């Protein structure tokens, strides 16, 4: 080695030693500067805290003086309350001589005050104080409340405005009485406290917007939960603070400037080196971002080595943390078992061919498809092959390819499932694809092959076609009749890439329907001619129909009038029969002698009342059919007529051993209805329920509001009605004709009358039943509008 070489080596060693010394010097100077800055900062903070403590001490003395003043007035007021309680002085005398006492009253009198008043709020506060065994408190309206229990068990209470007991405060200062969440004070409103603002330990600072702080000191009063708090606004930095900071800054600035000058000269070479390192790091960072954005990573592998180097992005793709070496065995463990043999063969062949490209599925969660690419370079020193390349995430590409394959498979399945012929041609009209139906319909199973010309296929299919004609609506559509008798509608359309699609639809049924339609049109024309000839006969038939209809309407009207008159005439003698039989049964004029006479009289009375009920039902039904039945809607409580009907018929239910339950919704709105008609409907429904319910059963009458309607339902636990008999039960004189049912008396008019009355109100009736379990009959009536419905019906009848 030459002398120059030795010299340069020594200079290099010296330069490295100087660099190490320079680095240690920088750290030492930085530490000295930091220690000086910390010492000066701590000194400034100590003096600032001392000033804050002095301010809080002065405020604490002032707050204690105010607290003593308030405490004295509280004790004087408590003494005054004791005088009033001992009847030594009247309340008015004490209020007049005691400073700022607005009132002394008993707690019971205060509780009678209107809600929101001062006495009411003070009474609420005093009640809580007695529960906590306190004598002084603060109401939510800012009054001081003092309470004292007397020997007779009562309590006297005094109230005074808290602001009068507090001294007036100048700007920037506020005196506040605090009790729980209740606060009142005097002075600067900007310094108002909230419960969350009270400092821990009853003294401290809280920050505000700007460069100010608020100092607060609280002193609790003896024997109460009230505290006296004083708040004063202080600037965050005083003039003394600024002067001290300026002095400390000057003390620190001199050595800092000297040290900075020295470091500036010493750090030029270091700055140059840092810039170069930064550029290299930035280049590496940009490359890493690019690789991550492309979901790719870098790898290196020596052909004779058993390990690979992976970059951060490459390691992430394989589920590893950070860049580094990974063994070949570990790499194989992260590849799906089905792909490992192919990967091993690829790496083995790479040594001879000098490049590698393969793809595999990872075992990570979630699994990924990775493509590995790379090529080899030869090391100039030991003539070894070094492979380098990228790992690329191709999961999305694989998924897209799989979706395309699935779509193609589904399309082929759909085309093969299509029962009509289908063929696809390229832009030169050469056959690309056809389905099985295309070959079978035209008998071309052994003829068709890919690449056949369109004209050749048309000629080849001619043997299977009996007739071909062009469609009138579309020139590109032809109708083909096959030798088998089927008709096909062949449609050809161009594809976006210039190709052609041929689709055939079986229209055999449509063609046959057209032929049938033609025959039907001919038959229709013949029928029209026959109709013209029979027109004269139709006019005669229409005239006879009108006459017969008028006769039927007259007969129906006569029937209704007859029933109405007969029912009226029958009621007169029945009233006499019922009246005299009731006199005889009750033995109003003396005993009858034989008890059988009384039984006979009761039978006559029961039968007469039953007959009168049936006649009344027939009369009401006749009036409805004759159009003479009217209702008088008035605003009523819907529960009143229902309750009246239940009370009228409850005795009859109790005699049979049946319980009636009335279930009404509270605060129902008034309904526009006829009270008598509603009561009659409920009587009919409950009477039917009693008739078909055995002893021990239950009948529930429900009244509810459902939207804009009132819902009245009668539910029983009786024998029920077969489902096939429900549609006809609301018709006049209709009853269930079962063997058991016919044992019950009645005309079958109850449900018909109820349905008619409901419809006269603009409502409707519904019926539901389960045979053997019970029946529910419901009436739905509009809350308002019955009068309008009656008026509208009357106007239609007049028109």
TrEMBL record:
GO molecular function: histidine phosphotransfer kinase activity; phosphorelay sensor kinase activity
Sequence ranges assigned to domain Histidine kinase in this UniProt record: 565-785
Enzyme Commission number(s) of this protein: 2.7.13.3
InterPro entries in the cross-refs: HATPase_C_sf (IPR036890), HATPase_dom (IPR003594), His_kinase_dom (IPR005467), HisK_dim/P_dom (IPR003661), HisK_dim/P_sf (IPR036097), PAS (IPR000014), PAS-assoc_C (IPR000700), PAS-like_dom_sf (IPR035965)
SUPFAM superfamilies hit by this protein: ATPase domain of HSP90 chaperone/DNA topoisomerase II/histidine kinase, Homodimeric domain of signal transducing histidine kinase, PYP-like sensor domain (PAS domain)
Catalytic activity: ATP + protein L-histidine = ADP + protein N-phospho-L-histidine
Domain PAS: residue ranges: 283-354
Keywords, in A-Z order: Coiled coil, Kinase, Membrane, Phosphoprotein, Transferase, Transmembrane, Transmembrane helix, Two-component regulatory system
Listed GO CC annotations: plasma membrane
Domain PAC as annotated: residue spans: 354-406
Residue stretches in coiled coil: 510-541
One Pfam family linked to the record: HisKA
Keyword Hydrolase (UniProt): no
TM annotation in the entry: 25-45, 242-263
PANTHER family hit by this protein: OSMOSENSING HISTIDINE PROTEIN KINASE SLN1, TWO-COMPONENT HISTIDINE PROTEIN KINASE
The protein's name in its UniProt record: histidine kinase
